[in-house]
């Protein structure tokens, strides 16, 4: 017997957004603002490209620095006001290992927040060796990681919505099975 292979396709976010306005927060660090403003602009442009023409909105929340991103992302999620959150920041290596501690702490905490709350968190924290690398990733030769983080958050939201439909279908199938047993 050949096993059944099933692929779950993401829901159409534009269609979903016409049924319910999607709310997305961008939490952006003010530290290295000359870079993070470009990341924010990229994220907003990606949001508009994907959900423009719907009633959906994006809300900007400013953080003092990258280290404060997880707390503000967590609070945004716990408010219940947002379907997804995008975290944006830029940590440039200096003379000490300070950057490594911040990068590790922020990235692992953001991953835990997303998993614990079941809300997509787009990861747009640049962890770079130089200002030149940061510029390349904030709208330069390497693209815009803010836009990529928004796309990742929206893609994850679309898949979570699809998974919720699968769970609903399975619950309905179990109810049908129960009725047949009676």
Topology of this structure?
Layout: H1 13-19, E1 23-29, H2 33-51, E2 57-63, H3 69-78, E3 84-92, H4 98-117, E4 121-128, H5 131-137, E5 138-140, E6 143-144, H6 145-181
Parallel strand pairs: 1-2, 1-3, 3-4
Antiparallel strand pairs: 5-6
Here the CATH topology equals: Rossmann fold
CATH architecture: 3-Layer(aba) Sandwich
% residues in beta strands = 15-25%
Query: Total helix count?
Result: 6
Which stretches of 5+ consecutive residues score pLDDT under 50? none
Question: What is the straight-line distance between the termini?
Answer: 30 Å
Molecular shape: globular
- What is the string of helix and strand elements? HEHEHEHEHEEH
User: How is the main sheet built?
Assistant: 4 strands, parallel
Number of domains: 1
- The SS-based structural class is alpha/beta
User: If you average the pLDDT, what whole number results?
Assistant: 91
* Rg of Cα set: 19 Å
Number of strands: 6
- Helix-residue proportion: 40-55%
The CATH fourth-level homologous superfamily: Lumazine/riboflavin synthase
Task: Identify the CATH class.
Answer: Alpha Beta
């Amino acid at each position: 017997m050949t096993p059944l292979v099933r692929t779950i396709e993401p829901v159409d976010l534009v269609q979903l957004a016409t049924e319910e306005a999607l709310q997305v927060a961008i939490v952006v660090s003010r530290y290295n603002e000359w870079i993070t403003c470009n990341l924010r602009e990229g994220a907003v442009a990606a949001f508009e490209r994907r959900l423009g023409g719907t009633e959906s909105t994006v809300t900007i929340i400013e953080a003092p620095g990258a280290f404060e991103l997880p707390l503000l992302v967590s609070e945004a999620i716990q408010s219940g006001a947002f379907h997804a959150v995008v975290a944006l920041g830029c940590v440039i290596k200096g003379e000490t290992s300070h950057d490594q501690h911040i990068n590790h702490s922020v990235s692992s905490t953001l991953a835990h927040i997303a998993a614990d709350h079941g809300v997509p968190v787009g990861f747009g924290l640049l962890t770079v060796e130089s200002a030149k690398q940061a510029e390349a990733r904030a709208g330069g030769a390497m693209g815009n990681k803010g836009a990529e983080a928004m796309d990742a958050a929206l893609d994850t939201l679309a898949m979570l919505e699809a998974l919720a439909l699968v769970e609903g279908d399975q619950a309905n199938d179990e109810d049908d099975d129960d009725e047949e047993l009676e």
